[in-house]
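Before the break, one more example. Copy the sequence into your notebook; we will annotate it together after we see the structure.
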Amino acid sequence: MLIQKIRPKYVWNDIVLPQNQIKELRKITKYIKLNNIAISDRGSDKNDFLHNGVYILFTGESGTGKTMAAEILSNDCNNHSSRKPNLYRIDMANVVSKYIGETEKNLKKVFNAAQRSGAILFFDEADALFGKRSEIKDSHDRYANIEVNYLLQCMEEYRGIAILATNNKKVLDHVFLKKIRFIVNFPFPDTTNRKLIWEKAFSKKVPVSKLEYNTLARLKIPGGNIKNIAVNAVSLAEEEKKPVDMLKVMHVAQREYEKMNKQITEGEFGKYYSLVK
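Here is what the structure looks like once it is written out:
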């Protein structure tokens, strides 16, 4: 399976980012809407979502909101477009093949399908595909560079929207970067924003008991991990048929830290450090 359809569930109020990043994301949706309207006015072919392809780069550590932002952009486009473009995540593990010629075939299938449907493509961990071309030392390097050149050709011909997400912008080939129209950096959330993320993490339908958001904000983790903790804390509370409380959240946080290979500290966990250690 080369692509996975994502059903966007997030809206603007769900994401927590500095204002500059929010402004940039809104500028992107405005640009897409204006181009879509312009195409309708010109009477272009109904299969043309945009006159030229729009490539957007999201950079930042894992869990800082890149996938959520892609869903929000897709939702916003759906709300203001008659085309209702679907959002598809590209499965890099299946697209990039060790067999000669297979990656090119897979790319052709992905871009052709997206072009026909007007879909928004989301290349998560884009550096696996858009990495720098290597110095040719053997036949493997030569074929790897052929894949890159074919990808550049696909990008030239594609007239839809593609979002590339990476944890490391430095490894991307400069030729690809030239084709990027918008770049949004997703910073690691500071204490203020971590508190906001925690406040949004639990549904209003979930019973909670005296959660200390200032204390939770001291945990130096991004939004993706905060979401994991919240989901698992709710599951634990439901099993015990009790509200979500601080001790449950901190126990789950300690397990999340273990998954991240991150040491818990008294500075972050405060009075709960000795209880969950």
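The chain has a mean pLDDT of 84. Strands lie at 3-6, 54-60, 87-90, 120-123, 161-166, 182-186, 208-209, 244-245. Try to locate both features in your own notes.
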